[in-house]
Amino acid sequence: QVQLEESGGGSVQPGGSLRLSCVASGTTYSTGYVAWFRQAPGKQREGVAAFYTDGGDYWYSDIVKGRFTISVDNAKNKWYLQMNSLKLEDTAVYYCARSIWAGAWADERTYDYWGQGTQVTVSS
Predict the structure, then answer these.
(1) CA angle 45, 7, 18 (to 5 degrees)
(2) Are 113 and 97 in contact, with CB atoms under 8 Å apart?
(3) 45: closest CA among 100, 101, 107, 90?
(4) In whole angstroms, what is the distance from residue 90 CA to residue 123 CA?
(5) CB proximity list for 118: less than 8 A, separation 6 or greater
């Protein structure tokens, strides 16, 4: 079993930055994805960014590409989401996720473990 816990959410003005953190405890895996998803009110949860641990590949949704960066600290079993140039539409609950195996990175069915989420609010 894996437990995931996010931190770093909060409120920020448009154009600002936030850094989310996710720490994993329990069983460790060397395969699969570590990822960030988000869910805005009234919308489906969507994939934001992912890192494929087997191949070292990075994946981003087109909406956040160039503004968000996922990074991983394997030694600490942590991963991060640096969010820059935040927009009003980035407001959502952000979740970290972990898959054991490969699959479609942006499909939430790929993931086996989820954090409880952290709120990010972008407002002026």
Answers:
(1) 80
(2) yes
(3) 107
(4) 10
(5) 6, 7, 8, 9, 20, 93, 94, 95
- C-alpha distances (whole Å) from 34 to each of 21, 120, 121 are 12, 19, 23
70-90 per-position pLDDT tens digit:
999 987 789 999 999 999 999
Q: How many CB atoms lie within 10 A of CB 18?
A: 21
User: CB–CB of 115/93 below 8 Å?
Assistant: no
CA distance 117 to 14: 21
Q: What is the pLDDT of residues 88-109, one digit of tens each?
A: 999 999 999 999 988 999 999 9
